[in-house]
Amino acid sequence: MSFLSSQRRRLCFRNERKLYSRTCDATSEKIISIYSPDKPYKVYKTDYWYSDKWSPLTYGRDFDFNRTFFEQFAELQLAVPRMGLSNVNGVNSDYCNMTFNNKNCYLIFGGDYNEDCMYGTLCMGNKNTFDNDYGNHNQLCYEIRDSINCYACQFASDSKNCNNCYFISDCSGCSECILCTNLNQKSYCIENKQFSREEYMHKKQELITGSYQKQQELIARFLELCAKRIVKYSHMINCENCTGDYMKNSKNCQNSFDITGSQDLKNVLFSSVAKDCEECSLLGDNSELCFNLISTFGAYNSKYSFFTIDSSNIEYSEFSIGSHDLFGCISLRNESNCILNKKYKEDEYKILKEKIIAHMHKTGEYGQFFPSQLSCFGYNETSAHDYFPFAKEEALAQGYKWKDEEDKTRHPQSIQLPDNIADTDQAIVNEILTCENCGKNFRILPQEFEIYKKSRIPVPRICPDCRHEKRMSMRNPRYLWDRTCAKCGMSIQTTYATDRPETVYCEKCYLETVY
């Protein structure tokens, strides 16, 4: 199976961003969940799911060697309750998912240790930052992507240690720069031209006005500049013997993307402090010896599973937490030696597991990830669609499910938004707005409006999902092309396709030219 097909198959099991209102099947309370009300699964609110008021072992069953494993696992999926959201230790952060230790956050997905942040994906340790994908340790920033340690920046991508910059890309250690690319330790620059502080501040007042029309003009100009810039073949920092993109402090990682502090990986999409893993997606800290796994934290010697947390020797299971030696289990916590949620003695477990594996070899099931039809979600609800978009017809043709949008009343925009944030008053808060892109309704929250007013950011006209999709579309695909450095002719592998307008350099030529 190709890298793309393998990633799609795993990622279609992870609903990261789509949230619904439904009823907890244990308490009958209204809850926020990643499972829409029409889904046939039992869903518990998170604190009840973690409680001792119920036991997943009560759903245990014997394995039937006259049937396929996947058929029996599908029945177990319908029986065993699952968490409505994965939102651990969140404080006033109810609308977040796949997250840990967030405080006062809203619609953060896959991001940890954030405070007073809204609308972010896989972002870590940020404060007062909105619309942030893959950005870490930023503060008072807006519309940023793949940027680190930035302060009070807007529309920044692939930049680090910058402050008070607007519309920048591939910049490092810069302050007070606008519409700039490939700058290092610069200040008071516009379109890469140096100005005096007085000249710059005057021009800044003309450019950063709080006007929506002016903002859109700057975005268009910024994209023109980005298309003409020199780029390094890969976004790698302190890496050795690696191929892929967006990698930091890693070693011996091949054909892998969004990798931090990891080593000896192959065909991995997103990892943090992982080692000796292959064909995996979204590996959390301290995952080791994993194969064909997705959504982990502290997983060891495990394969063909989804959501494996602080567990070892897990196969073909979902939601394994603090457990070891599980096969074909769902929602087990602090358990061991279980098959289809039934507990065995250690020697019995080992013998039965080997018999089931032999049976799965005969049926052609063993050695592959769960079939996409066992996913609880439609393709368009999942991370697969986020990373590798499909049209509905394409998804269905490939055997994936699809979630048709429920009919909802669309409210026409009830107020006329002023062009400039200076002319926008508090009445906008909680007002129903209509996305100019997809037509969906969305709201501006009080803390959001406060940041817009303070930072001279015009109220957005498109919803958070569409803003996220725009940022993702500007990110390079997870695919490598063979090219040559535009300066020295050295062979390189890069995520910049051969028909891209940017000038692509190898690392040596890039550093010599830019720095």
Number of strands: 35
Helix content estimate: 10-25%
Strand count, sense and barrel status of the largest sheet are: 14 strands, mixed
Overall outline? globular
Counting helices, strands and paired strands, the structural category is: alpha/beta
Mean pLDDT: 95
In whole angstroms, how far apart are the ends?
Answer: 41 Å
Helices, by number, come to 11
What does the radius of gyration come to? 24 Å
Poorly predicted regions:
none
The percent range for strand residues is 25-35%
Structure description:
The protein has 515 residues and is an alpha/beta fold. Helices cover 21% and strands 30% of the residues. It contains 11 helices and 35 strands. Strands 17, 18, 19, 20, 21, 22, 23, 24, 25, 26, 27, 28, 29 and 30 form a 14-stranded mixed sheet that branches. The chain has a 9-stranded mixed sheet with strand order 7-8-9-10-11-12-13-14-15. Strand 14 (187-190) and strand 15 (193-194) form a beta hairpin. The longest helix is centred in the last third of the chain and has 18 residues, at 346-363. The radius of gyration is 24 Å and the shape is globular. The two termini are 41 Å apart.
